[in-house]
Design goal:
By secondary structure, this protein is an all-alpha fold. It contains 23 helices and no strands.
Length: 457
Protein backbone atom coordinates (compact mmCIF):
# COMPACT_ATOMS: atom_id res chain seq x y z
CA UNK A 1 0.00 0.00 0.00
CA UNK A 2 2.92 2.32 0.74
CA UNK A 3 4.17 2.35 -2.84
CA UNK A 4 0.63 2.66 -4.22
CA UNK A 5 0.27 5.83 -2.18
CA UNK A 6 3.66 7.09 -3.38
CA UNK A 7 2.74 6.51 -7.03
CA UNK A 8 -0.64 8.17 -6.58
CA UNK A 9 0.90 11.20 -4.88
CA UNK A 10 3.46 11.60 -7.67
CA UNK A 11 0.63 11.55 -10.24
CA UNK A 12 -1.27 14.19 -8.25
CA UNK A 13 1.88 16.33 -7.98
CA UNK A 14 2.37 16.19 -11.74
CA UNK A 15 -1.24 17.22 -12.37
CA UNK A 16 -1.01 20.06 -9.84
CA UNK A 17 2.21 21.34 -11.38
CA UNK A 18 0.64 21.31 -14.85
CA UNK A 19 -2.48 23.17 -13.67
CA UNK A 20 -0.44 25.81 -11.85
CA UNK A 21 1.72 26.35 -14.93
CA UNK A 22 -1.50 26.92 -16.90
CA UNK A 23 -2.48 29.71 -14.45
CA UNK A 24 -5.32 27.85 -12.73
CA UNK A 25 -6.40 29.52 -9.49
CA UNK A 26 -3.79 28.09 -7.05
CA UNK A 27 -6.03 28.08 -3.97
CA UNK A 28 -8.58 25.91 -5.77
CA UNK A 29 -5.96 23.58 -7.25
CA UNK A 30 -4.21 22.95 -3.92
CA UNK A 31 -7.45 22.60 -1.94
CA UNK A 32 -9.11 20.14 -4.31
CA UNK A 33 -5.94 18.09 -4.84
CA UNK A 34 -5.37 17.97 -1.07
CA UNK A 35 -8.93 16.74 -0.52
CA UNK A 36 -8.51 14.14 -3.22
CA UNK A 37 -5.34 12.79 -1.61
CA UNK A 38 -6.92 12.69 1.86
CA UNK A 39 -9.89 10.78 0.45
CA UNK A 40 -7.67 8.46 -1.55
CA UNK A 41 -5.60 7.72 1.56
CA UNK A 42 -8.75 6.42 3.26
CA UNK A 43 -9.73 4.43 0.17
CA UNK A 44 -6.41 2.55 -0.10
CA UNK A 45 -6.32 1.91 3.64
CA UNK A 46 -3.40 4.17 4.52
CA UNK A 47 -3.39 4.63 8.31
CA UNK A 48 -1.18 7.71 8.27
CA UNK A 49 -3.98 9.98 9.47
CA UNK A 50 -3.12 13.68 9.78
CA UNK A 51 -6.21 14.76 11.71
CA UNK A 52 -7.70 13.79 15.03
CA UNK A 53 -11.41 13.53 14.21
CA UNK A 54 -12.67 9.97 13.79
CA UNK A 55 -16.43 10.01 13.34
CA UNK A 56 -16.50 6.77 11.37
CA UNK A 57 -17.48 8.63 8.19
CA UNK A 58 -14.26 9.65 6.36
CA UNK A 59 -15.84 12.42 4.27
CA UNK A 60 -17.03 14.19 7.44
CA UNK A 61 -13.57 13.85 8.99
CA UNK A 62 -11.97 15.47 5.94
CA UNK A 63 -14.25 18.49 5.99
CA UNK A 64 -13.81 18.79 9.75
CA UNK A 65 -10.08 18.88 9.08
CA UNK A 66 -10.57 21.77 6.64
CA UNK A 67 -12.50 23.67 9.30
CA UNK A 68 -9.76 23.01 11.84
CA UNK A 69 -7.10 24.20 9.38
CA UNK A 70 -8.89 27.51 8.84
CA UNK A 71 -9.47 27.95 12.58
CA UNK A 72 -5.90 27.13 13.58
CA UNK A 73 -4.25 29.25 10.89
CA UNK A 74 -6.52 32.27 11.35
CA UNK A 75 -6.03 32.17 15.11
CA UNK A 76 -2.24 32.07 14.92
CA UNK A 77 -0.03 32.75 11.91
CA UNK A 78 -2.96 33.98 9.81
CA UNK A 79 -3.83 36.71 12.28
CA UNK A 80 -0.19 37.73 12.53
CA UNK A 81 0.20 38.01 8.76
CA UNK A 82 -3.05 39.95 8.44
CA UNK A 83 -2.08 42.46 11.12
CA UNK A 84 1.29 42.98 9.46
CA UNK A 85 -0.42 43.46 6.09
CA UNK A 86 -2.79 45.99 7.63
CA UNK A 87 0.11 47.80 9.31
CA UNK A 88 2.06 47.98 6.04
CA UNK A 89 -0.99 49.44 4.27
CA UNK A 90 -1.49 52.02 7.03
CA UNK A 91 2.19 53.07 7.04
CA UNK A 92 2.05 53.56 3.29
CA UNK A 93 -1.15 55.60 3.44
CA UNK A 94 0.00 58.04 6.13
CA UNK A 95 3.37 58.53 4.44
CA UNK A 96 5.45 56.93 7.19
CA UNK A 97 7.33 54.63 4.79
CA UNK A 98 8.28 57.60 2.65
CA UNK A 99 9.39 59.52 5.75
CA UNK A 100 11.69 56.63 6.64
CA UNK A 101 13.18 56.75 3.16
CA UNK A 102 13.75 60.50 3.36
CA UNK A 103 15.47 60.27 6.75
CA UNK A 104 17.57 57.24 5.86
CA UNK A 105 18.75 58.65 2.54
CA UNK A 106 20.58 61.56 4.16
CA UNK A 107 23.31 59.58 5.94
CA UNK A 108 23.25 56.84 3.29
CA UNK A 109 23.43 59.06 0.23
CA UNK A 110 26.99 57.98 -0.58
CA UNK A 111 25.77 54.38 -0.96
CA UNK A 112 23.77 55.31 -4.07
CA UNK A 113 26.91 54.59 -6.07
CA UNK A 114 26.94 51.01 -4.77
CA UNK A 115 23.28 49.93 -4.58
CA UNK A 116 23.90 46.22 -5.10
CA UNK A 117 26.56 46.10 -2.39
CA UNK A 118 24.19 47.92 -0.04
CA UNK A 119 21.47 45.37 -0.82
CA UNK A 120 23.55 42.26 -0.08
CA UNK A 121 24.84 43.87 3.13
CA UNK A 122 21.28 43.44 4.37
CA UNK A 123 21.63 39.63 4.37
CA UNK A 124 23.67 39.16 7.59
CA UNK A 125 21.71 41.95 9.30
CA UNK A 126 18.46 40.36 8.19
CA UNK A 127 19.62 36.97 9.46
CA UNK A 128 20.22 38.44 12.92
CA UNK A 129 16.72 39.94 12.94
CA UNK A 130 15.22 36.69 11.61
CA UNK A 131 16.65 34.86 14.63
CA UNK A 132 14.46 37.06 16.84
CA UNK A 133 11.48 37.20 14.45
CA UNK A 134 11.44 33.61 13.13
CA UNK A 135 8.21 33.79 11.13
CA UNK A 136 9.31 33.96 7.49
CA UNK A 137 6.15 35.68 6.23
CA UNK A 138 6.04 38.04 9.21
CA UNK A 139 9.73 38.89 8.92
CA UNK A 140 9.43 39.47 5.17
CA UNK A 141 6.51 41.86 5.57
CA UNK A 142 8.27 43.74 8.37
CA UNK A 143 11.24 44.38 6.10
CA UNK A 144 8.92 45.29 3.24
CA UNK A 145 7.50 48.05 5.45
CA UNK A 146 10.82 49.34 6.75
CA UNK A 147 13.78 48.37 4.54
CA UNK A 148 12.29 47.85 1.08
CA UNK A 149 11.53 51.56 0.41
CA UNK A 150 15.07 52.50 1.46
CA UNK A 151 16.68 49.96 -0.89
CA UNK A 152 14.50 51.03 -3.82
CA UNK A 153 15.33 54.69 -3.33
CA UNK A 154 19.03 53.89 -3.07
CA UNK A 155 18.85 52.51 -6.60
CA UNK A 156 18.16 48.82 -5.94
CA UNK A 157 15.54 47.41 -8.29
CA UNK A 158 12.26 46.27 -6.77
CA UNK A 159 12.90 42.66 -7.76
CA UNK A 160 16.45 42.71 -6.40
CA UNK A 161 15.26 44.20 -3.11
CA UNK A 162 12.40 41.77 -2.56
CA UNK A 163 14.54 38.77 -3.60
CA UNK A 164 17.19 39.66 -1.02
CA UNK A 165 14.56 40.23 1.67
CA UNK A 166 13.13 36.76 1.01
CA UNK A 167 16.67 35.40 0.79
CA UNK A 168 17.24 36.52 4.39
CA UNK A 169 14.79 33.77 5.43
CA UNK A 170 16.90 31.01 3.86
CA UNK A 171 18.33 29.84 7.19
CA UNK A 172 15.81 29.12 9.94
CA UNK A 173 18.10 29.05 12.98
CA UNK A 174 18.09 30.33 16.54
CA UNK A 175 16.38 29.47 19.83
CA UNK A 176 13.06 31.00 18.72
CA UNK A 177 12.85 28.93 15.53
CA UNK A 178 10.13 26.29 15.42
CA UNK A 179 12.38 24.01 13.36
CA UNK A 180 15.22 24.43 15.87
CA UNK A 181 12.84 23.55 18.71
CA UNK A 182 11.73 20.43 16.86
CA UNK A 183 15.31 19.43 15.99
CA UNK A 184 16.61 19.63 19.56
CA UNK A 185 13.58 17.76 20.85
CA UNK A 186 14.11 14.97 18.32
CA UNK A 187 17.85 14.80 19.01
CA UNK A 188 17.40 15.07 22.78
CA UNK A 189 19.90 17.92 23.17
CA UNK A 190 19.90 21.45 24.59
CA UNK A 191 18.84 24.37 22.38
CA UNK A 192 21.62 26.87 23.11
CA UNK A 193 24.57 24.47 22.46
CA UNK A 194 22.89 23.34 19.22
CA UNK A 195 22.47 26.97 18.15
CA UNK A 196 26.00 28.10 19.10
CA UNK A 197 28.05 25.03 18.23
CA UNK A 198 26.08 23.58 15.28
CA UNK A 199 24.03 26.28 13.58
CA UNK A 200 26.14 29.45 13.85
CA UNK A 201 29.45 28.14 12.33
CA UNK A 202 27.81 26.79 9.19
CA UNK A 203 25.38 29.73 8.93
CA UNK A 204 28.34 32.16 8.72
CA UNK A 205 29.75 30.30 5.73
CA UNK A 206 26.38 29.97 4.01
CA UNK A 207 25.60 33.67 4.50
CA UNK A 208 28.85 34.62 2.77
CA UNK A 209 27.98 32.38 -0.19
CA UNK A 210 24.46 33.84 -0.26
CA UNK A 211 25.78 37.42 -0.34
CA UNK A 212 28.15 36.75 -3.23
CA UNK A 213 25.50 34.82 -5.17
CA UNK A 214 22.83 37.50 -4.80
CA UNK A 215 25.24 40.24 -5.81
CA UNK A 216 26.11 38.47 -9.06
CA UNK A 217 22.61 37.20 -9.85
CA UNK A 218 20.76 40.47 -9.26
CA UNK A 219 23.40 42.43 -11.16
CA UNK A 220 22.92 40.08 -14.12
CA UNK A 221 19.11 40.08 -14.06
CA UNK A 222 18.87 43.85 -13.56
CA UNK A 223 20.93 44.27 -16.72
CA UNK A 224 18.80 41.72 -18.58
CA UNK A 225 15.54 43.31 -17.40
CA UNK A 226 16.88 46.82 -18.17
CA UNK A 227 15.71 48.30 -14.85
CA UNK A 228 14.86 51.97 -15.18
CA UNK A 229 15.69 53.59 -11.82
CA UNK A 230 14.33 56.94 -12.93
CA UNK A 231 10.84 55.44 -13.29
CA UNK A 232 11.04 53.91 -9.81
CA UNK A 233 11.98 57.24 -8.25
CA UNK A 234 9.23 59.03 -10.15
CA UNK A 235 6.70 56.58 -8.72
CA UNK A 236 7.87 57.15 -5.16
CA UNK A 237 7.57 60.94 -5.46
CA UNK A 238 3.82 60.69 -5.94
CA UNK A 239 3.29 59.44 -2.38
CA UNK A 240 2.50 61.66 0.57
CA UNK A 241 5.54 62.62 2.66
CA UNK A 242 4.92 62.81 6.39
CA UNK A 243 7.04 64.62 9.02
CA UNK A 244 10.48 63.16 9.71
CA UNK A 245 9.37 61.78 13.09
CA UNK A 246 7.09 59.39 11.20
CA UNK A 247 10.21 57.52 10.10
CA UNK A 248 10.13 55.86 13.52
CA UNK A 249 6.78 54.17 12.89
CA UNK A 250 7.72 51.50 10.29
CA UNK A 251 10.65 50.29 12.41
CA UNK A 252 8.78 50.48 15.73
CA UNK A 253 7.58 46.84 15.52
CA UNK A 254 11.19 45.71 15.00
CA UNK A 255 12.32 47.77 17.99
CA UNK A 256 9.59 46.27 20.16
CA UNK A 257 10.27 42.71 19.04
CA UNK A 258 14.03 42.98 19.54
CA UNK A 259 13.68 44.76 22.88
CA UNK A 260 11.22 42.22 24.25
CA UNK A 261 12.38 39.11 22.39
CA UNK A 262 13.83 37.24 25.35
CA UNK A 263 17.14 37.03 23.46
CA UNK A 264 18.39 40.49 24.45
CA UNK A 265 18.10 41.90 27.96
CA UNK A 266 17.14 45.51 27.31
CA UNK A 267 14.72 46.11 30.18
CA UNK A 268 14.69 44.61 33.69
CA UNK A 269 11.08 43.50 33.17
CA UNK A 270 10.84 39.97 31.75
CA UNK A 271 8.29 40.55 29.03
CA UNK A 272 8.03 38.93 25.61
CA UNK A 273 6.03 40.60 22.85
CA UNK A 274 4.78 38.62 19.86
CA UNK A 275 4.64 39.98 16.32
CA UNK A 276 0.85 40.50 16.30
CA UNK A 277 0.99 42.47 19.56
CA UNK A 278 3.86 44.60 18.24
CA UNK A 279 1.82 45.42 15.13
CA UNK A 280 -1.23 46.49 17.12
CA UNK A 281 0.84 48.62 19.52
CA UNK A 282 2.57 50.29 16.58
CA UNK A 283 -0.77 50.92 14.86
CA UNK A 284 -2.09 52.83 17.87
CA UNK A 285 1.13 54.81 18.12
CA UNK A 286 0.57 55.73 14.46
CA UNK A 287 -3.00 56.79 15.22
CA UNK A 288 -1.70 59.07 17.99
CA UNK A 289 0.83 60.57 15.59
CA UNK A 290 -1.91 61.20 13.05
CA UNK A 291 -4.15 62.88 15.62
CA UNK A 292 -1.34 65.19 16.73
CA UNK A 293 -0.58 66.09 13.12
CA UNK A 294 -4.13 66.52 11.76
CA UNK A 295 -6.12 67.43 14.90
CA UNK A 296 -9.04 65.66 13.16
CA UNK A 297 -10.34 62.90 15.41
CA UNK A 298 -13.00 61.81 12.88
CA UNK A 299 -10.40 61.34 10.13
CA UNK A 300 -8.12 59.43 12.49
CA UNK A 301 -10.94 57.07 13.47
CA UNK A 302 -11.82 56.59 9.80
CA UNK A 303 -8.19 55.77 8.96
CA UNK A 304 -8.47 52.50 10.90
CA UNK A 305 -10.41 51.25 7.86
CA UNK A 306 -7.11 51.34 5.93
CA UNK A 307 -5.63 48.90 8.43
CA UNK A 308 -8.67 46.61 8.27
CA UNK A 309 -8.77 46.73 4.46
CA UNK A 310 -5.10 45.80 4.40
CA UNK A 311 -5.83 42.84 6.66
CA UNK A 312 -8.61 41.72 4.30
CA UNK A 313 -6.40 42.00 1.22
CA UNK A 314 -3.70 39.88 2.83
CA UNK A 315 -6.26 37.30 3.97
CA UNK A 316 -7.71 36.68 0.53
CA UNK A 317 -4.36 36.63 -1.26
CA UNK A 318 -1.95 35.15 1.29
CA UNK A 319 -3.61 33.49 4.29
CA UNK A 320 -6.03 31.44 2.20
CA UNK A 321 -3.14 30.12 0.13
CA UNK A 322 -1.20 29.18 3.26
CA UNK A 323 -4.22 27.24 4.54
CA UNK A 324 -4.81 25.28 1.34
CA UNK A 325 -1.07 24.62 0.98
CA UNK A 326 -1.17 23.03 4.44
CA UNK A 327 -4.12 20.86 3.39
CA UNK A 328 -2.21 19.84 0.25
CA UNK A 329 0.88 19.00 2.33
CA UNK A 330 -1.15 16.89 4.74
CA UNK A 331 -2.67 15.08 1.78
CA UNK A 332 0.82 14.09 0.63
CA UNK A 333 1.71 12.88 4.12
CA UNK A 334 -1.52 10.88 4.48
CA UNK A 335 -1.00 9.26 1.11
CA UNK A 336 2.46 8.04 2.17
CA UNK A 337 4.57 10.23 -0.08
CA UNK A 338 7.21 10.86 2.61
CA UNK A 339 7.32 7.33 3.95
CA UNK A 340 7.62 5.91 0.45
CA UNK A 341 10.60 8.08 -0.45
CA UNK A 342 12.39 7.19 2.78
CA UNK A 343 11.70 3.48 2.32
CA UNK A 344 13.16 3.49 -1.20
CA UNK A 345 16.27 5.33 -0.06
CA UNK A 346 16.87 2.85 2.75
CA UNK A 347 16.42 -0.18 0.49
CA UNK A 348 19.03 1.13 -1.94
CA UNK A 349 21.62 0.49 0.75
CA UNK A 350 23.12 3.96 1.12
CA UNK A 351 25.65 4.61 3.89
CA UNK A 352 25.29 7.29 6.55
CA UNK A 353 26.53 10.06 4.24
CA UNK A 354 24.34 8.88 1.37
CA UNK A 355 21.25 8.71 3.56
CA UNK A 356 22.06 12.14 5.01
CA UNK A 357 22.42 13.68 1.56
CA UNK A 358 19.22 12.07 0.31
CA UNK A 359 17.27 13.17 3.38
CA UNK A 360 18.60 16.71 3.00
CA UNK A 361 17.60 16.82 -0.67
CA UNK A 362 14.20 15.23 -0.02
CA UNK A 363 13.29 17.73 2.68
CA UNK A 364 14.50 20.53 0.39
CA UNK A 365 12.21 19.34 -2.41
CA UNK A 366 9.34 18.76 0.04
CA UNK A 367 9.65 22.34 1.31
CA UNK A 368 9.44 23.64 -2.27
CA UNK A 369 6.41 21.48 -2.91
CA UNK A 370 4.65 22.35 0.35
CA UNK A 371 5.70 25.99 0.56
CA UNK A 372 6.56 25.39 4.22
CA UNK A 373 9.88 24.52 5.80
CA UNK A 374 8.11 23.66 9.05
CA UNK A 375 5.74 21.16 7.42
CA UNK A 376 8.58 19.48 5.55
CA UNK A 377 10.77 19.19 8.65
CA UNK A 378 7.93 17.96 10.84
CA UNK A 379 7.26 15.20 8.28
CA UNK A 380 10.87 14.00 8.02
CA UNK A 381 12.54 14.97 11.30
CA UNK A 382 11.06 12.38 13.69
CA UNK A 383 12.34 9.57 11.45
CA UNK A 384 16.01 10.53 11.87
CA UNK A 385 16.96 9.06 15.30
CA UNK A 386 16.23 5.51 14.12
CA UNK A 387 18.09 6.10 10.85
CA UNK A 388 21.08 7.60 12.68
CA UNK A 389 21.13 4.72 15.18
CA UNK A 390 21.26 2.16 12.37
CA UNK A 391 24.40 3.79 10.95
CA UNK A 392 26.05 4.67 14.26
CA UNK A 393 26.04 8.45 13.77
CA UNK A 394 24.60 11.29 15.85
CA UNK A 395 21.11 12.51 15.05
CA UNK A 396 22.30 16.11 14.73
CA UNK A 397 24.72 15.15 11.95
CA UNK A 398 21.67 14.51 9.75
CA UNK A 399 19.18 16.87 11.39
CA UNK A 400 21.35 19.98 10.99
CA UNK A 401 21.52 20.00 7.17
CA UNK A 402 17.83 19.03 7.06
CA UNK A 403 17.07 21.97 9.37
CA UNK A 404 18.80 24.36 6.96
CA UNK A 405 17.60 22.82 3.70
CA UNK A 406 13.96 23.00 4.80
CA UNK A 407 14.08 26.79 5.02
CA UNK A 408 16.14 27.00 1.82
CA UNK A 409 13.46 25.12 -0.09
CA UNK A 410 10.79 27.50 1.19
CA UNK A 411 12.78 30.45 -0.23
CA UNK A 412 12.21 29.18 -3.78
CA UNK A 413 8.69 27.81 -3.40
CA UNK A 414 6.12 29.79 -5.41
CA UNK A 415 3.44 28.87 -2.86
CA UNK A 416 5.48 29.91 0.21
CA UNK A 417 3.73 32.52 2.33
CA UNK A 418 6.81 34.76 2.52
CA UNK A 419 7.17 34.93 -1.28
CA UNK A 420 3.47 35.48 -1.87
CA UNK A 421 3.20 38.19 0.80
CA UNK A 422 6.30 40.14 -0.22
CA UNK A 423 5.43 39.89 -3.92
CA UNK A 424 1.98 41.29 -3.16
CA UNK A 425 3.44 44.30 -1.32
CA UNK A 426 6.17 44.92 -3.92
CA UNK A 427 3.79 44.53 -6.85
CA UNK A 428 5.98 41.95 -8.63
CA UNK A 429 5.25 38.39 -9.86
CA UNK A 430 6.07 35.58 -7.44
CA UNK A 431 7.83 33.60 -10.17
CA UNK A 432 10.14 36.56 -10.84
CA UNK A 433 11.31 36.33 -7.22
CA UNK A 434 11.72 32.56 -7.52
CA UNK A 435 13.88 33.06 -10.63
CA UNK A 436 16.24 35.38 -8.78
CA UNK A 437 16.37 33.17 -5.69
CA UNK A 438 17.09 29.92 -7.53
CA UNK A 439 20.84 30.28 -8.14
CA UNK A 440 21.74 31.71 -4.70
CA UNK A 441 19.69 29.03 -2.92
CA UNK A 442 21.16 26.18 -4.98
CA UNK A 443 24.64 27.65 -4.40
CA UNK A 444 24.19 27.55 -0.63
CA UNK A 445 22.60 24.09 -0.80
CA UNK A 446 25.62 22.77 -2.71
CA UNK A 447 27.94 24.49 -0.23
CA UNK A 448 26.02 22.91 2.65
CA UNK A 449 26.32 19.42 1.18
CA UNK A 450 30.05 19.77 0.40
CA UNK A 451 30.96 21.43 3.70
CA UNK A 452 28.88 19.28 6.03
CA UNK A 453 29.06 15.85 4.41
CA UNK A 454 32.45 16.28 2.74
CA UNK A 455 34.41 17.99 5.49
CA UNK A 456 32.56 17.77 8.81
CA UNK A 457 30.57 14.52 8.74
Amino acid sequence: MLYIGLICSIIVIAIVAKLLLKDFYPQAVLLISGLMMLGLAHFIGNKAAVYDTNSGIPIFDIFEFIKDSFSKTNANVGLMIMTIGGFVAYMDKIGASEALVKVALKPLAFLKKFPNITAVALIPIGQLIFICVPSAAGFGLLLMASVFPILVNLGVSRLAAVSIITGCTSFCIGPASVITASAVEIAGIETVPYFINQQIPIAIILNLVLMISYFLVNKYYDKQDKINFAEVKQESKTKEIAPAIYALLPVLPLILLLSFSGVFTVFPIQLKIETTTAMIISLFVGLIFEFIRTKNIKAVFASIKIFLDGMGDIFKSVVTLIIVAEIFANGLIALGFMDGLISISTQLGFGAKGIGIIMTLMIFLAAILMGSGNAAFFAFGPLIPNVAKQFGVSSTSILLPMNLSASMGRAISPIAGVLIATAEVAGVPVMAIVKRNLIPVFAVLLTLLIYHFGLCF
